[in-house]
Write a structure and sequence with these properties.
By secondary structure, the protein is an alpha/beta fold. It has eight helices and twelve strands. The structure holds NADP nicotinamide-adenine-dinucleotide phosphate.
C-alpha cells in the first residue's frame, strides 16, 4: 500500500497532463504547518473524465480541486452544485458531504477578492481576453462588481471583439483589461496578447491570471505606460484557501 493510502484524509487535484501543480505544494505545506499528519494531497491525472467515477469510488477522498480541462466536464458526475458555480458553469472544488459530491467555484472568490481593492470609480468597463474556462468566472465577478464586460477572441463571435478591433477608442473606454489567455506563461515569456499597448495610460488596470512568470510581458507593457498591474498569484492562493474552508466547514 502506498504511503498516501494509509492517510485518513485524502485530498487531490483532478486534471489532465498535470505537469506541475501549485495546489499540491500549497496543501502539503499547509498540512505540515497545521501538523495534520493524517492528511495528504495528490495529483490525479485522468486521460478522460470517464475515469472520475472510479477515482471517487476507490480512493476514499475528502475533497478535490479540479483543473483544465475538466471544470465543466465534471459537473454531470456531481450530486449538486453551488449557486456561483451554477451561474458560471464551471467547478474547481468538490466537497464530499453527507449529501454527496457538491461542486463549487472558488476561482470567482479568488479573483473578486484580489481585484476589488484595486478598482476605482473610473473603472466602469472591462475587456476580457480569451474565452476559455477561466474567463467565465472572471466575467461573472466583474459583472457582479458592476462593470460592463466585453470579451476579446481570436475568432469572430457575436457580441465579442477580435484583437484587430482594439484601437485607442476601445482602450479609452475599457480601463480594466484581464488576460485570460495562456500567452506569456513560462517558458514562452515573450508572448503577449495583441493589444495596441501605446494607448494604455495610468487610468488602466491590467490583471493577468498568469502567475509564472511573476511579471508577464503583458504586465510589463502596462507598467511602462503607468498602468496598475496585478498577476494571478493572489487569486490562486485565495481560491485554494476558500477550497480549504469549504472542505473543513
Ligand atoms: P483555456 O480554457 O485554455 O482558455 C484560454 C483561452 O485563451 C482560449 O479559450 C482562447 O480564447 C485563448 N487563447 C488560447 N490560446 C491562445 C493564443 N495562442 N493566442 C491568443 N489567445 C489564445 O484556459 P483557461 O482555463 O481559461 O485559463 C486561462 C489562463 O488562466 C491559463 O493561463 C491558466 O493557467 C490561468 N488561470 C489562472 C488562475 C489563477 O488562479 N491565477 C485560475 C484559472 C486559470 P479564444 O479562442 O476565444 O481566443
Amino acid at each position: 500500500m502506498e504511503e498516501t493510502e494509509k492517510k485518513e484524509k485524502r485530498f487531490g487535484l483532478v486534471g489532465k497532463d498535470i505537469s506541475y501543480s501549485f495546489s499540491k505544494g500549497y496543501f502539503e505545506k499547509k498540512f505540515k504547518q497545521l501538523d495534520l499528519r493524517d492528511h495528504s494531497y495528490e495529483n490525479f491525472d485522468l486521460a478522460d473524465i470517464s475515469g472520475f467515477k472510479s477515482l471517487v469510488e476507490q480512493c476514499n477522498l475528502s475533497g478535490l480541486n479540479v483543473t483544465i480541462p475538466y471544470k465543466e466536464a465534471v459537473i454531470p458526475y456531481l450530486d449538486a452544485i453551488g449557486e456561483t458555480a451554477q451561474e458560471i458553469g464551471a467547478v474547481n472544488t468538490i466537497a464530499f458531504t453527507e449529501n454527496g459530491l457538491i461542486g463549487h467555484n472558488t476561482d470567482a472568490y479568488g479573483f473578486e477578492h484580489s481585484i476589488r481593492p484595486l478598482l476605482q470609480p473610473h473603472h466602469t468597463n472591462a475587456l476580457i481576453m480569451g474565452t476559455g474556462g477561466a474567463s467565465k468566472a472572471i466575467a461573472f465577478v466583474l459583472k457582479k462588481l458592476g462593470l460592463g464586460v466585453t470579451f476579446v477572441s481570436r475568432t469572430e463571435k457575436e457580441g465579442m471583439l477580435t484583437y484587430q478591433a482594439l484601437d485607442g477608442d476601445v482602450l479609452k473606454e475599457h480601463t480594466v483589461i484581464v488576460n485570460c489567455t495562456p500567452l506569456g506563461t513560462h517558458p514562452n515569456i515573450d508572448e503577449k496578447p495583441d493589444l495596441p499597448y501605446g494607448f494604455l495610460t495610468d487610468k488602466h488596470l491590467l490583471y493577468d491570471l498568469i502567475y509564472n512568470p511573476e511579471k508577464t510581458s503583458f504586465l510589463q507593457e502596462g507598467e511602462k505606460q503607468g498602468a496598475t498591474i496585478k498577476n494571478g498569484l493572489e487569486m490562486l492562493r485565495l481560491q485554494a484557501e476558500k477550497a480549504w474552508e469549504i472542505w473543513t466547514s
